[in-house]
Structures are given as C-alpha cells and as structure tokens.
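Section handout 9: paired folding examples.
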Amino acid sequence: MIELPLRKSATYEAKIMTICTTAEGMESFKFVKEGRTGVEIIGRGYDAAGVTETLRKKQKIVIEVPLNCAKCKKQVLTICTTAEGVTTVKFIRDGKDRVEIIGDGVDAAEVTQDLRNKLKFAKLVHVSKLD
C-alpha cells in the first residue's frame, strides 16, 4: 500500500493509474480511500520503491498571475498554499508577474484553474520535475 494525498481530480487519479499500471510485474491495482488514502498494488517483482518515488517526485510549477495589489497577492498565496502537496510558494516579478510553486504531486492544472476562477487570469507557464 502506498499512501498518497488523493484528490477529487480525474486527471490526478488518471496520472496515478498510468504510473501504477505500467509498473513491471504489476498484477492488480486499486484506489484505497477508506481510512487512509492511497493505492494498493499487487504483483510479483515490481519495484515498489521506484513506483513510490515516481508518484512523489517534486515538481516546480510556474504560473503567470496578476500581482497588481496586496489583495491579489493574498488571494494567490491562499490558493497556492492550500493546494495539496505544496511545500514552497514564491513570487517572481521580472517583467511578468509569476508565482513559483514547489511540491510533491501538485496538480498544476487544478491550481491554475483555481487561480483563474478567483483572479480572472492565470496562465500555466511550465511544469518541471526537480531531482
């Protein structure tokens, strides 16, 4: 059993399913949501540590957002820090206003959409894996 923060995001669950079902030696896979949240993989000879590492890789997300006033900054900070898996949030002001998010398993599309809903504009610039 691999414990993970499961969200109500179909794309996040699809990503988890793809990683787990393509693991060599995997025989069965299921989401476990009662009590603890995670995934259960049954198989012979599959690399559990490798699958866990792949699922929990740190990533850096950069999103362009309006940082015109203190209220905008506060809204951006609130949305980003409450997203599941976020460990660091940093504002970047180098010509274009951006926010840099670092975390484990953060759903970049979901965070961008939440920012867009609140601020009327948010553009996902890039997502990269950190080693």
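Moving on to protein 2 of 2.
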Amino acid sequence: MPTGRPPERDRQRRGGNTTRRARESARERRPNGGSGGRTVSRRSGKSTRPPAGTGGAFKLSSTRRAAVLAILVCAMALSVSVPLRTYLGQRDELADLESREHRLGEEVQRLAERKTELSDPQRLETEARERLGYVRPGETPYIVDLPSTPPGDSGDNNGDSKEKPWYQKLWKALTGGEGK
C-alpha cells in the first residue's frame, strides 16, 4: 500500500542519511543561515535581519525597473494607439455616411412624390406650358415683356438720392450740379 513516502532504499540512494544533525550543519554552511527569517550570528550571538535586497524581481535596480516599466507602458500605448485611431476614424466616417443616407432617403421620398404628382396628365400639361413654354398645335403663344422699372418712376431725380454712389454726389457738389 503506497504511503506517499519513498522507501528507505530510495532515500539512501538520493542522499543517504538525512538526519537532523546533517540538515542543521547544511543550514549553518549557507550564507544566509538557511532560513528567510532572523538568524543568530555565530560571532555576536545577536539576532540580525538579512540584508535588504535591492534587486527585487529579476535582480534589477529600482532605476532599471522604472525604465523597463516605462518601456512597457510606451509599448502598450503604441500598440493601442493605431487601432484606436482607426476606430475613431471609422466612427466619424460612419456618422457621415448615416447622415448622407438620411439626406438621400429624404430626396428619394421627395422624388417619389414628384413622380406621382407628374403622373397626372393635367399636371404634366401645366408644367410643360409654364416651365417649357409648350403650346398645343393651332394655339398662338404670346410673350409679354414687362418693364424692369416700376411705373411712375421716371428715373430723373434732381435731388440727391441714395441710389447714387458717394463719388457722384461729391462730383455734383464740386461742379455745381453739372454733369451726371
């Protein structure tokens, strides 16, 4: 029945006698005294602490650890910046495309209404007459050309008017009303 301990023969092959005295002598030969806690110094008999390790993880000084940490932070920032920039660019592009889709949807709806409006023959004839100047065969078209100035305005003003530029007013004042 297995007990979890190697048999006596295996123990002797590995290291022979591992008695209490042999373990203690091995501990005394170690530079730190064999344990991680306080040790008794052979010379003074006082309890001393092991020297404070400045190496930390991977036996690096604090300056080197800070440099390694800074390099890791920079590497992580650089590895995140490119995908983040791509994400933000695509998000802006998506917003632009959605607004364009909305505008085009409104235009499609307006054009569909216009199409149904022009499917009526009466409306189509009215549009052709007004916008394109079409007439039916046998009809005589008349084009009335209206004057551009409203009636009652003769265009002859002797007084200073606000329509004249400042230099004309100045010239009229200098010449005593002669000329334009």
